[in-house]
């Protein structure tokens, strides 16, 4: 897959009520190895927001590489990221039927369709 501009991605998942503070705490100090794996995979401008009424985590990011599938496979094979997911997946509830966790064949997070984008005028 070759892209000429960043691919923007939005994903959602539920946060377990008992895990809110722990999830926020671990994300206040994300492990350097996890961030390095994302950077190697051409992920940038990554953020996760939380909407408490629906216990909804909303992740947005930009992918700037040229082979998304291969880069995501590399992230899923990263040992530090696998350890991270072993902790964070237990705090989440997937919307995807049959999902067993991050980095598996069935997606853990649900990708959300973009229906509008405004980037403003270039100056």
Care to describe what's here?
Strands 1, 2, 3, 4 and 5 form a five-stranded antiparallel sheet that branches. With 123 residues, the chain is of the alpha+beta class. The protein has one domain: Alpha-Beta Plaits (2-Layer Sandwich).
CATH architecture: 2-Layer Sandwich
Contiguous low-pLDDT stretches (5 residues minimum) are none
Radius of gyration: 15 Å
Strand content: 15-25%
Q: Which geometry do the CA atoms define?
A: globular
For the biggest sheet, the summary is: 5 strands, antiparallel
Q: Could you say how many structural domains there are in total?
A: 1
Q: Which CATH first-tier class would you pick? A: Alpha Beta
Pfam family, one: rhaM
Protein name: Rhamnose mutarotase
GO molecular function: racemase and epimerase activity, acting on carbohydrates and derivatives
Organism: Lentinula aciculospora
Features:
123 residues, alpha+beta, Alpha-Beta Plaits, 5-stranded antiparallel β-sheet, 30% helix, Rham/fucose_mutarotase, racemase and epimerase activity, acting on carbohydrates and derivatives
Which SSEs are present, and which pair or pack?
Layout: E1 7-15, H1 20-27, H2 32-40, E2 43-51, E3 56-63, H3 68-77, H4 79-88, E4 92-93, E5 110-111
Pfam family, one: rhaM
Protein name: Rhamnose mutarotase
Organism: Lentinula aciculospora
Summarize, please.
It is built from 4 helices and 5 strands.
């Amino acid at each position: 897959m070759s892209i000429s501009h960043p691919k923007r991605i939005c994903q959602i998942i539920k946060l377990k009520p008992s895990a809110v503070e722990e999830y926020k705490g671990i994300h206040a100090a994300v492990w350097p190895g996890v961030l390095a794996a994302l950077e190697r995979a051409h992920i940038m401008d990554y953020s996760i927001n939380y909407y408490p009424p629906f216990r909804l985590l909303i992740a947005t990011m930009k992918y700037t590489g040229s082979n998304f599938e291969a880069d995501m496979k590399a992230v899923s094979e990263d040992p530090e990221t696998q350890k991270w997911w072993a902790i964070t997946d237990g705090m989440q509830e997937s919307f995807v039927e049959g999902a067993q966790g991050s980095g598996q064949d069935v997606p853990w997070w649900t990708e959300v369709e973009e229906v509008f984008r405004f980037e403003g005028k270039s100056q």
